[in-house]
Amino acid sequence: MIQSKYRLEKIEKNGNVRYNLVKDIRFKDQKAKVRVPISDPQNVDILNMDLEKKAVLKKVELSSDYYISDYLEKSDVLSLEEKRWIYKEFFKQVSIDEASYFEKKFETDYIHGTTAVEGNTLTLAEVNDLLEYGLSPKKDLREINEVQNYVKTRSFTSNYNGKITAAFIKKIHSLIMDNILENSGQFRNANVGIVGCDLQHTPPELIEDELNELIQIFYENIQNQKYPFEQILIFHYRFETIHPFLDGNGRVGREVMNYLLRKEKFPQFLIGNENRSEYLSALRSGDEEKLKQMIQTFYQMYQNQLTKIEDEFNRLQ
């Protein structure tokens, strides 16, 4: 989607010669360039960071003008787009060791959070020891399987580059619920309800049709330049209302949500015990047809997370 190149631009005027370091940028069908003046072509490296900062701001301008936001204010989109492109460029600038550190940290935090939301009692340290060193804590086998299943799940989603489909979602469920649920990877064949919730989930005979329709609408909205962050959150909410499986809907829904975020070059959305009540409250706002309130709540949760990531980035610099 984004093509970036450095090139040296030589300008001769009135017998004088000057140079610019130029980076060409392309976003969707829009093209632009940013440049910084350079006095000595031999000193290109020291200006790379200045050029990258200009490039990020230009990408923010192009992307925020391109997308149509139905729920977030323009200033919110600008702020989120800036963080999105800074995050993407950061991984191009850091060392392999630093990138590996962040990837492992995000992965451990994500797996701990998404399982903890569903009641898993493994601590963050226990999850790290299990994933990093294979050290199993003295906990219920189901809880250990819940964590280990995410390694297989992420291996699958990391090697999958296509659009989401009903088959893709079933596969994720089969991996996440392996050795936990007998009929993993199969849509439910019975009606379900949630205690204390009046929301009616999709009847089993309509699940596949409604899910396919949801997927189609999502990609049509993306094609029509709707803001991806908003559309991904709406997809997540609609998926949870369909509730296609007997168990594991939250875990699968968050995994699909993060797959879509990664495809659009957003950082993962980390949801854990510390913001569980806020997360569930936001989903209930959608139940009450307050989608704007739901998206604004999720947006603020996400911004708080990105601020913490930014602090981590700055700590390494």
From TrEMBL:
InterPro entries: Fido (IPR003812), Fido-like_dom_sf (IPR036597), Fido_containing (IPR040198). This is Fido domain-containing protein. It comes from the Archaea. Residues 164-301 form the Fido domain.
